[in-house]
Each structure stands twice: as C-alpha cells, then as structure tokens.
Design brief:
With about 90 residues, the protein is mainly alpha-helical. The chain has a single domain (about 5-80), classed as lambda repressor-like DNA-binding domains (434 Repressor (Amino-terminal Domain), Orthogonal Bundle). About 65% of the residues lie in helices and about 0% in strands. It is built from 5 helices and no strands. The N and C termini lie far apart (about 30 Å).
C-alpha cells in the first residue's frame, strides 16, 4: 500500500510531538480514545487517514492546536519535497 506524502508528513509531526512530550504510542492512543497502540503507529507511518475529530483529539492530547499540528506537517512535507534532512 503506497502512502500519501501528506499523511507521512502528518505522521512525522505527530511522532515528533509525541516523543517530545515523553509519551509512548499506547499512552497517546488512550488519550485520544484509541486503545490500540497500532492505531497511533499507523498514523505516524502515514498508513492511517485519521478523521478531523481524531486529529483534533491528537493535537489536544499533544498540547497543540490542530492548525499547529498541520503547520508542522507542512514543514515536514516541504522539507521532504526539497530533500532537506534535519540530522538532529
């Protein structure tokens, strides 16, 4: 199954924020009402096209607005399309 670059970028943004908040996938999933760790894993891999409601819950659980989450995803997508890699 081929993943969309936009979904991959969104997943990277979710993972980046989750790790920065010290949460594992299971903990984030529980906070947004998805008790399966694999759900958040699939979002982070760009394999799950989450609903607006779920993305809003993910953003809230990560302490950011939905618009900030999307803005971070856009940066990842732009960096990917230009070949930029942050080597942190």
């Amino acid at each position: 199954m081929e993943t969309s670059p936009s979904l991959v970028a969104l997943g990277r943004a979710v993972r980046e924020l989750r790790v920065a908040r010290g949460l594992n996938q299971r903990e984030l999933g529980e906070r947004v009402g998805h008790n399966q760790r694999s759900y958040i894993g699939h979002v982070e891999q760009g394999r799950r096209n989450a609903t607006y409601e779920t993305l809003s819950a993910i953003a809230a659980a990560l302490g950011v607005s939905l618009s900030e989450l999307v803005a971070r995803a856009e940066v990842h997508e732009r960096d990917r399309s230009t070949g930029y890699r942050d080597e942190r």
